[in-house]
Amino acid sequence: MAAKKIKDSIYWVGAVDWDRVLFDELVSLPEGTSYNAYIVFGSEKTALIDTVEPFKKEELFRNLKELKVEKIDYIVSNHAEQDHSGAIPEVLKAFPEAKVITNKKCKEMLKDLLDLKEEVFEVIEEGQELSLGDKTLQFFMAPWVHWPETMFTWIKEDKVLFTCDFLGSHIATSELFDTTDENRAKVYLETKRYYAEIMMPFRNFIKKHLQLIDKLKPEIIAPSHGVVIKDVEFMTGAYKRWVSDKVKPMVVIPFVSMHESTRHMVEFLTEELSKNGVIVRPYNLIKADVGNITMDLVDAAAVVIASPTVLAGAHPEVISFAYLMNGLRPKTKIVSVIGSYGWNGKVMVKHIQETLKNLKAKWIEPLLVKGLPKEADYERLSKFAEELSKAVKEVSET
Ligand code: FEO
After folding, report:
1. Is the CB of 20 under 6 A from ligand 1?
2. For a designed S-S bond to 351, which of 42, 91, 314, 379 qualifies (C-beta 3.0 to 4.6 A apart)?
3. Alpha carbon distances (Å) from 61 to 55, 66, 84, 90, 290
């Protein structure tokens, strides 16, 4: 994708990855992604802000050539992860006079990850400014979005904030901004997916970073994935809701069923909760996209995990999901387990409870059924749904 102008003397020079389907061998990318690098031409100095995945370096160099970039004085590294830093060694080879501008923690990580030498760095501190002549870069530490070394770069004169992964989205598109109708709905959805899968464990740090953005009042936010954001209020408003403690009256039911008994329980519970006025999202873990489930975890008041008992525990797919959920630490207020067993169901419940040890949620007494659910079991499930619906409504925003 050719270079694109954001403002006078500020250009997108990154790379679009149209067919990438997986990130970190974990996160699905239904819309592909982009690696956003930006070039800022000051009257005296030129700065490149972040780079691209090493396998996309030709696209970065093509864009620099198109803009007739003959010198780069500074390579700003907002985040050490290789999808943004990975091409720094190549840029340094092409522009050996350039200095890598970053914070102390990021410098150490870049040395580890890319084998960069001490002498290529210039370390900056919180709030420090760097003049490019008629433009000034200012740096703000923004740890844990989503690594400990992350920072933001601010151009005071233009009110443009470069936020690395923060407020980004995995979208491959030929459009630069979030302003077209074609982009708007997709940007919201994919930004939420990005938050759910990558940023959610750090929501308390994120609250502080959103306060910084409110203070700076940027006109444009340029993240390192997806589109450049002009509707700053809309996107930061969405993030503020996601990181808040408020939940929706929604129950997510991730499940696996081997011989239909657990499925019968899930289907009955889904109906009962729905009758009680609660939003329900059952997800068959064998088929469902995990990104879609995690997006619901951003808001859901409750999660009921449904599993058969197998291999003296919960189904491995259930444990894999519970492990992910434990790491993502959603703000879910209520959690429980249901499932069918042949001869010992308690080991399944214990397995899930141990896997979800980081979750700060209230447990509702799990409900187990021996074999196929029968009339008395459906009555118990009906009462379970009633109790759960009441609890969900009590903790949800109205
Ligand atoms: Fe897009 Fe954390 O790298």
Report:
1. no
2. 314
3. 12, 9, 14, 9, 35
Atom of ligand 1 lying closest to residue 146 CA: 2
- pLDDT the model gives residue 51: 98
Q: Which residue has the higher pLDDT, 268 or 180?
A: 268
Indicate if 293 and 312 belong to the same structural domain: yes
Nearest CA to ligand 1 atom 3: 81
pTM: 0.96
Q: How large is the average pLDDT for residues 366-389?
A: 98
Q: Which two tokens stand for residue 263?
A: 């499925």
Domain stop point among 222, 243, 264 = 243
Pocket lining: 224 vs ligand 1, CB cutoff 6 Å: yes
Write the DSSP symbol of residue 26: T
Residue 84 alpha carbon to ligand 1 centre in Å: 7
Are residues 91 and 181 located together in one domain of the fold? yes
Read off the CATH number of the domain in which 293 is found.
3.40.50.360
Tell me how far CA of residue 31 lies from CA of 13, 16, 34, 171, 229, in angstroms.
20, 11, 10, 5, 17
The reply to whether ligand 1 has any atom less than 6 angstroms from the CB of 193 is no
Percentage, residues of the chain above pLDDT 70: 100
Distances (CA, A) of 246 to 170, 249, 323: 26, 10, 23
Provide the token pair at 372: 């196929």
Same domain, 176 and 298: no
Check whether 182 has a pLDDT greater than 80: no
203 shares a domain with 169: yes
Share of the chain above pLDDT 90, in %: 96
Query: Is there an atom of ligand 1 within 6 Å of 315 CB?
Result: no
Cα–Cα distance between 363 and 325 in angstroms, integer?
15
Q: Which atom of ligand 1 is nearest to the CA of 35?
A: 1
| pLDDT of res. 198 | 97
**Do 260 and 161 share a domain, yes or no?**
no
pLDDT surpassing 90 at residue 127: yes
306, 168: one domain = no
| Structural domain of 25 | 4-243
* 16 and 73, same domain (yes or no): yes
Taking the centre of ligand 1 as the mean of its atom positions, its distance from the CA of residue 20, in whole angstroms, is 14
Residues 228 and 279 reside in one and the same domain? no
Write out pLDDT tens, residues 200-222: 999 999 999 999 999 999 999 99
Residue 203 belongs to a domain with what CATH number? 3.60.15.10
Residue identifier of the C-alpha nearest atom 2 of ligand 1: 81
Does the C-beta of 225 come closer than 6 Å to ligand 1?
yes
